[in-house]
Amino acid sequence: MADHQEATVTLPSDPASVSAARRHVADVLTEWGLPQDSPQADSVRLIVSELATNAVQHTFGQSPTFTVDLRLERDEQLRIGVTDSHPRWPRRLPAAVQQDNGRGMVIIRWLTAESGGRLSVCPTEDGGKTVWIALPWTAAAPAAVVESGG
After folding, report:
1. In terms of CB atoms within 10 Å, which of 65, 114, 118, 137 comes out highest?
2. What does the pLDDT look like over 105-117, one tens digit per residue?
3. Cα angle 131, 135, 141; round to 5
4. CA nearest 41: which of 52, 51, 27?
5. CA-based nearest residue to 131, from 72, 50, 62
6. 3-class SS of residue 138
7. How many CA atoms are closer than 13 Å to the CA of 102, on its beta-carbon side?
8. If pLDDT is split at 50, 70 and 90, which confidence band does 100 have?
């Protein structure tokens, strides 16, 4: 496998784009050797769903699109970035807040920590932000075929 692989998709900030982002990521991960039924694939799909949902719901129409970037570096680290053009960064809600939504970042932080990864937010040149998740890559490398002499 190459030292560095990338895949990117830009989608409209529409609720239907959340499932499109999740499907795109699932297809790319499978292409890169991560089984769709693996725990890491499940975690990544959920992280992307939550980040994409945030990009759609919390940009208040100020970000007409969002972009999902996947980067696999040296078969060691998977980086997932979701970029939108809204200037407000994700906020951690107080634990006492009782509401039906707004827990996406809690889920993302928990899944990231559980996987041994880290979360960061970086500003973009256009005044928006990218939420990056870096996770150890757990897809097993293909086993080498060993022939024995007889």
Report:
1. 137
2. 888 999 999 999 9
3. 140
4. 27
5. 50
6. coil
7. 10
8. low
